[in-house]
Design a protein that fits this description.
391 residues, alpha/beta, Aspartate Aminotransferase, domain 2, 2 domains, seven-stranded mixed beta sheet, four-stranded mixed beta sheet, 12 helices, 37% helix, binds pyridoxal-5'-phosphate
């Protein structure tokens, strides 16, 4: 028996090492990794230039605290603002922390405007994390059950429904922000209408609310642009990042622009580890290598091709509801729960995930090659067809 708290129903597999898009288990069996640690290993496993950058930093300095200036943290903030055109950054260690920062920022923004009980609009099927505030913002009862009382100050509306927001605006006085994923990840790779973010931007401007985008899963090149909002012509006021930012090293960030800029003052928020030299170097090296190796273009090209291929091979199969997503963030929705596919894929040497019960979720690293994408198709498509043909 393990002494770990029983928080995960784990597959009984232990990986010992990896290279690129491949992982090896303790029996020496090789797996194609189409999940990359849930959208985390942007550069795949054991990327040589990433390893070298981290090793050099570890030999120099890992941590000093935020009581001093941190050169690497200033550099990653500059880089994130250059790429996103946001204005300032708070560095932390995970997605829930980035969202906690966003939620605190929105409340402070409200208090600064004289709103003593600020309310944030959140979405059905949203996922924002497992801390008390972020699980309260999450739109999944399974995540919340047993942890009541929930944090107050959230109102929930349907995703991809601008009218629902306009309606709630009429009878809820203290709204200060909308928190939303541009593509819902845990909720089942749900992509809203292309006009949704623009509509949200307009409503937020009309009411002086902050538009806060949770790009923890969909950000950082996964959809083929640096950030998912860049597929539109709008800017958010707040954006949160984590998962892929450190290519496996825990790093999160909360970015602000426009009227959200300058909200936090010394003493309002903090993190002991946040943005330390090691974490910041991991993030900087990730972004630099993504640029050098043109990984956005790869995500866009391979993702488009993969989606077409899945549509061609599975689109007409009875039991396949839709293939959706953008770039290397793809979901295949079936008409029945399909968690059993995860173990079946592992047997065949393929790592995938199932979310929202019936959606096969693919989040390969951005270094995936055409040949690897072909292998993914050739293993997964027959598995899905066989699975659906049963019973
Ligand atoms: C994973 C995820 C989070 C939570 O990130 P953690 O690092 O696990 O705290 C928040 N928002 C979204 C959209 C996510 O996918």
């Amino acid at each position: 028996m393990s002494h770990l708290m029983n928080t995960y129903a784990r597959q009984n597999i232990t990986f010992t090492h990896g290279e690129g898009a491949w992982l090896w288990d303790t029996d020496g069996k090789r797996y194609l990794d189409a999940l990359s640690g849930i959208a985390v290993n942007t550069l795949g496993h054991a990327h040589p230039r990433f390893t070298a950058a981290l090793s050099a930093q570890i030999g120099k300095l890992i941590h000093t605290s935020n009581l001093y200036r941190v050169q690497e943290q200033e550099a990653i903030a500059d880089k994130l603002c250059e790429l996103s055109r946001m204005q300032e950054v708070f560095m932390c260690n995970s997605g829930c922390e980035a969202n906690e920062a966003a939620i605190k920022l929105a409340r402070l923004y409200g208090h600064n405007k004289g709103i003593s009980e600020p309310t944030i609009i959140v979405m059905e099927k949203a996922f924002h994390g497992r801390t008390l505030a972020t699980l309260s913002a999450t739109g999944n009862r399974k995540v919340q059950a047993g942890f009541e009382p929930l944090v107050s100050g959230f109102v929930r509306v349907a995703y991809d429904d601008l009218d629902a927001i306009r309606q709630i605006a009429q009878h809820t006085p203290n709204i200060v922000a909308v928190l939303v994923e541009p593509i819902q990840g845990e909720g089942g790779i749900r992509t809203p209408d292309i006009s949704y973010l623009q509509g949200l931007r307009k409503i937020c401007d009309e009411h002086e609310w902050l538009l806060m985008l949770d790009e923890v899963q969909c950000g950082l090149g996964r959809t083929g642009k640096w950030f998912a909002f860049q597929h539109t012509n709008i800017m958010p006021d707040v954006m949160t990042l984590a998962k892929g930012l450190g290519s496996g090293v825990p790093v999160g960030a909360c970015l602000a622009a426009g009227k959200a800029t300058g909200t936090f003052k010394p003493g309002n928020h903090g993190s002991t580890f946040g943005g330390n030299p090691l974490a910041s170097t991991a993030a900087l090296a990730t972004l630099n290598i993504m640029e050098q190796d043109k990984l956005l273009a790869n995500a866009e090209k391979l993702g488009t091709w993969l989606k077409q291929q899945f549509e061609a091979r599975l689109g007409g199969v009875k039991g396949v509801v839709t293939v959706r997503g953008q770039g290397l963030m793809l979901g295949i929705e079936l008409d029945k729960p399909c968690g059993a596919l995860v173990a079946k894929a592992l047997e065949k040497g393929l790592i995938i995930n199932v979310t929202a019960d019936s959606v096969i979720r693919l989040l390969p690293s951005l270094i995936f090659s055409q040949a690897e994408a072909q292998q993914l198709l050739d293993i997964l498509c027959p598995l899905v067809t066989e699975f659906l043909a049963q019973e």
